[in-house]
Every structure is written in C-alpha cells, then in structure tokens.
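agent> Task received from the user: take the single chain below, predict its 3D structure, and emit structure tokens. No templates, no multimer pairing.
agent> Plan: (1) validate residues, (2) run structure prediction, (3) serialize to tokens, (4) report one or two observations.
agent> Step 1 OK, no nonstandard residues flagged.
tool_call: predict_structure(input=
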Amino acid sequence: MRNNQELLSLLVDMAKATRCCQQDSSYGEDITFTQFYIINLIAEQGTLRLTDLHALLSVEKSTSTRLIDPIVQRGYVKKEKSACDCRAIDLTLTEKGHETNIEHWKCLNDFFNQLLAEIPEDKQEEVFSCVVLFLKAVKKVFNHPGCS
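)
tool_result: status=success, residues=148
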C-alpha cells in the first residue's frame, strides 16, 4: 500500500511529465495545446456546438469563449449561429484549421510512437489501463466536497 507522500510525488511527477499540454504554444504554431485539442474535437465532430465544448473541456462558458476567440480570430475555426437553433453557436474548422490539425497530428504521432517505444510492448496495455484507472479515481475523488 502506498503512503500519501508517495501519491503526492506521483501526482507532481505526472503534472511535470504532462507539462507540454499546458505550454503557451505547441509545435511552433500560434496555438496552445488546449486550442489544438479544441481544433481536433471539432475535426472529429465536423460541427461542434459551443455548449458541447464547455462540457467536453469541463470548463465554464467564459473559459471556452476565451479559448475559442483567438483561434477564430486567427482563422482556424468559424463560429456561426446554428441553422437549427438560432440561440446556439456552431463551431467548424476552416481549411487552415484542417491543415493545422493534420500537421499537429504528424508531430503527435511521432511523439506517441517514441513514447510507446519506451514502454515494453507486453506492458503497454497494462500501463494504459492503470493510468486510466488512476485518472478516473482522481477525477471521482476531486469532484467530491472536502479538501479539493
């Protein structure tokens, strides 16, 4: 059984290891990793409602707007009133957004391949499953009232 000091160290080490996801820019582009993630979500969906984005990112509406507006202004994403519901805002990618998504995925694929190469092939599924299980536990506990 692990003690609390070891769990704290593990969380800190995980945060350090994933710091690339918090950097102001990714791969030399003028977008953050989170903004790339949004571009990728839109690419996966084709059209994404702004209200759905809030839920997918687990952030407030104002935070979604703060993240979306710069990538709209730079021409990666179009923000339009929904044809089905004039109160809703639909997000779609521009050609520049599609190209950026493809280019970023080329870099990410290289990164993920290098990352997986550092984990023995017979352990990769186990590592992935354990990390998913740990993250679910952190999210569940973090969402309970108390010290969090």
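agent> Step 4: summary for the user.
Residues 22-142 form a domain with the Arc Repressor Mutant, subunit A fold (CATH 1.10.10.10).
agent> Done.
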